Amino acid sequence: MSDPFSAYAHPEALVSTDWLADNLDAPGIRIVESNEDVLLYETGHIPGAIHIDWRRDLNDQTIRDYIGPEAFAALCARSGITPDTTVIFYGDKSNWWSCYALWVFHLFGHTKCQILNGGRSKWVAEARPLTRSLPAIEPVAYPVPPRRRDAEIRAFYAETLAHMQSGLPLVDVRSPGEFSGEVTHMPEYPQEGVLRGGHIPSAHSMPWARAANPDGTFKSPEELRALYADALGLKTDDDIIAYCRIGERSSHTWFVLKYLLGYQKVRNYDGSWTEWGNMVRSPIERR
Asked: What global pTM score does this model have?
C-alpha cells in the first residue's frame, strides 16, 4: 500500500487513523491526547492514550513561560516516554493543541513526534473505539535535556519586533476579525485581557484553519502551497515567524510550514497577541 502522506515534505510526521487503529499496542510508541478542552479526555479517549494538559503539564505555573528541562524530563518519565519513544499526538480543534504539545516537545529536542491526521474528531467520526479506562503506565528514566531550544523554533517579543523592522515574513494566523482589529479575541471566546486590537505591521493574514479540511485533516501539499507559497509568496528558505493569540494556533501553522511543506526556518512567537497587544508602545496596524 502506498504512503498516503508521501507527497508531504516530511511524510513521517503524520499517521493515519487506519494505521493507528492497527498499531495501538505497537512497542515504542506513546499516544498522547492534548485538547483545548482539558476535560474532554475523561469522556473517552483512544485506548492506551495518556492525557497531557497544556496548562498544567506544559506551562510554568508562576511565570509566563514553559516548563524547564527538569520538569519536562519528569513529565516524560511518569508518562512512560523515553528518548527513543515515538509520541503520537492527537486532540480536538483540528489538532490545534496537539500541534502545540508537539512543538513544546520539540523545544526540548524530542523530535520523534507525529500527529494523527484528523485528530480526535476523525477518530470519533469513524466510530473507532474510545475508552474511559486509564492506561497503566510504568515510569521510565528520561534524562534531563541539556537545554531548551528556544533560539531555534521560538521567537520572543524583541526578536519579533526586529523581524518586523527588517521586513522579514510574519504570518498572523488568527481570524480575519482579530487581524483587522475589529475584535480582540476569537469569535465565541471570552476576551482575554488584550487591550488593543490589530496586527503586527507588515504581517500577512492567513488564518490557521485554511490549512485544514472540514474533517480536521490537513489539506494536500498542492492546496497548502497555494496558500503559503502562491498567495503569501513565502519561499522555503525564508526566515518566518508565525503568531496568533498565545501560540496555539500558530503551532498548527508552524507544523504545516515546517513538516508538511518543508520550510527551513520557521519560529513560533508564543507571546503572540496577548503580549504584543498589551506591550507599551508596541506598533500596531489596523485594517
From this structure: 0.96
Crossing angle of the two packed helices 248-255 and 96-107, in degrees rounded to 10: 80
CA distance 55 to 285: 30
Domain boundary among 96, 116, 148: 148
Residue 284 lies in a domain: no
Q: What is the pLDDT of residues 47-104, one digit of tens each?
A: 999 999 999 999 999 999 999 999 999 999 999 999 999 999 999 999 999 999 999 9
Nearest to 34, CA basis, from 19, 46, 16, 20 = 46
Last residue of some domain: 87, 119, 148?
148
Q: Give the three cell numbers for residue 287.
A: 485594517
For residue 286, being part of any structural domain is answered with no
Residue 192 predicted with pLDDT over 70: no
125 shares its domain with 165: no
Q: Does residue 244 carry a catalytic annotation?
A: yes
> Do 246 and 179 have their domain in common?
yes
Q: How far apart are CA 235 and CA 125, in angstroms?
A: 36
Whether 103 and 213 map to the same domain: the answer is no
Q: Mark whether 130 and 189 lie in a shared domain.
A: no
